[in-house]
């Protein structure tokens, strides 16, 4: 049986280049990986963006061609990517597709310090007081968000040179994508029992560990959890451990 393809959904402000260390590790382990920048990141029309638009892009551009080819998929989501990623995955599990006579499908979900959103939740709605953190710079006229001191917010504990490059590669985030409601997510579905995982970052200055732990604990479903003494970017500072965990779960979930 062939290995599942990994589909990586980046977080807000981020693009595939930020995940290069992890992508390289997974390719070394012989996994094919597909990813793309979300439409809400670096958008020239930020006020027209939304979770639904990002989810549609993931479904049509990343998942669709693989499903058409009958591929098994591990869906890997970072940060905000958990909102549109889980939305896009709805109804596309291998179990559901097999039941309808279709080949391929999503065999497992892996969240990397990502939002676990219920239907109707936005990222903003999950923040205390429905207010953006103090490090978020909100340009309401343009409908864009940027980040103050991204080294401290995203890359604490990351090698200085790697962090500098990552900061230079950050792009403005369309605000409406973070304040618009998520559609029905796939993660609560029983077809993913024993096939959903969460990598928690204990030194995360973006989504604090306590928030990550609460989302998992009160989700109402079981998760395979990996805790790392990491920033919001464990794929940069704990690349080997993250890759090994993903490979371990890919093997378990696909067979």
TrEMBL record:
InterPro entries, per database record: AB_hydrolase_1 (IPR000073), AB_hydrolase_fold (IPR029058), Sec-Metab_Biosynth_Hydrolase (IPR052897)
Report domain AB hydrolase-1 positions.
6-244
Task: Supply the alphabetized keyword list.
Answer: Hydrolase
One GO molecular-function annotation for this sequence?
Answer: hydrolase activity
Record keywords: tRNA processing included? no
- A Pfam family of this chain: Abhydrolase_6
- Domain of life of the organism encoding this protein: Eukaryota
Signal peptide start-end: none
Q: What is this protein called?
A: Alpha/beta hydrolase fold-1
């Amino acid at each position: 049986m062939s290995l599942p393809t990994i589909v990586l959904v980046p977080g807000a402000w981020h693009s595939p280049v930020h995940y290069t260390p992890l992508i390289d590790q997974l390719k070394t382990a012989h996994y094919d990986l597909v990813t793309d920048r979300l439409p809400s990141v670096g958008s020239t029309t930020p006020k027209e963006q939304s979770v639904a638009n990002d989810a549609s892009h993931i479904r049509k551009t990343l998942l669709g061609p693989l499903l058409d080819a009958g591929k098994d998929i591990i869906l890997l989501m970072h940060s905000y990517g958990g909102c549109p990623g889980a939305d896009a995955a709805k109804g596309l599990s291998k179990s559901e597709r097999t039941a309808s006579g279709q080949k391929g499908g999503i065999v497992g979900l892996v969240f990397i310090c990502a939002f676990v959103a219920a239907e109707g939740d936005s990222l903003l709605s999950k923040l205390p007081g429905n207010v953006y953190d103090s490090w978020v710079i909100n340009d309401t006229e343009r409908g864009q968000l940027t980040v103050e001191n991204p080294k401290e917010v995203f890359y604490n504990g990351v090698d200085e040179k790697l962090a500098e490059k990552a900061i230079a590669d950050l792009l403005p985030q369309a605000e409406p994508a973070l304040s618009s409601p998520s559609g029905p997510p796939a993660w609560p579905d029983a077809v993913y029992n024993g096939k959903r995982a969460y990598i928690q970052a204990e030194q995360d200055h973006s989504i604090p560990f306590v928030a990550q732990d609460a989302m998992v604990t009160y989700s109402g479903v079981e998760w395979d959890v990996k805790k790392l003494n990491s920033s919001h970017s464990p794929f940069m500072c704990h690349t080997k451990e993250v890759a090994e965990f993903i490979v371990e779960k890919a093997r378990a979930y696909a067979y």
